[in-house]
Design a protein that fits this description.
285 residues, 75% helix, globular
Amino acid sequence: MTKRRRSRSYFVRARYAARSTRISGICVAALFLLLAQTASAQVGLASGDDAWNSRADGLTDGRAKHGRIEVAIKSYRQALEKESAKIEAQWKLLRALHYLIEFTDAPDGRKQSAVEEAVVVASTGIRESVNGNGESRDHAALLFWSAIAWGARGQRVGLLTIVREGVANKMHEYAHRAVELEPEIERGGGYRLLSRLHATLPRLPFISGWVDRGKTLAMAERAFSIDSADPGNRLILALALTEHAPERLEEARLLVESVANATPRPTLLAEDLAIREPAREQLRQ
């Protein structure tokens, strides 16, 4: 090999080595960025979970101070920006927004903005989850809390409007898909929701033809079979029995009485207090 060829071969190898080094450097940098994003997402989720677990601190007259749940909402929003934790952050954010809307002393304007945010998060989450990864339980939770988000929207526009706008169909579809993935999600929450949808929504041809009063009791009994101690499941079953099984009214009365007299669970304090009130009102009536 001539001196010139050896020189050219050396420079070719040098350029190749330099290019390989740059590629390796880019890969390492990308790996570090991914690890940093994953760590940041986990920090956001952990911070949100801490605030979520203390959401009922300072609860007065059945209403929680909204400061703690606002911390959870902010933390889940931050985690939502990181792809590695997206689906978990989505459903946890929806759950936190629901809590703010239903169980806190937040002003009405803040609750309305939370409803609007929840619908956006739900719509985005459902669209992205079609091709997304993640545990089936996370997907089921996203579907369930998306249905709840649309339910909050529906409460503000009226029964016929939610049917005409397709809100009812979304709630039914998401709840149905959630229980197909994870029947036990939220202690039978998907079946609780399905029971009340079949019980309360108007059945309109070509719009809500899936509504079937005959499924009200069956769905309530499915929820009860998953967690018979859950006061929500007990109250939903009592309602279904009252409406569709008059021969079991005594059973319904005993269920309502058990909910009315139940001690709220420390981990679901505001939620259980909210369930206890309608049970007590039913007993008074």
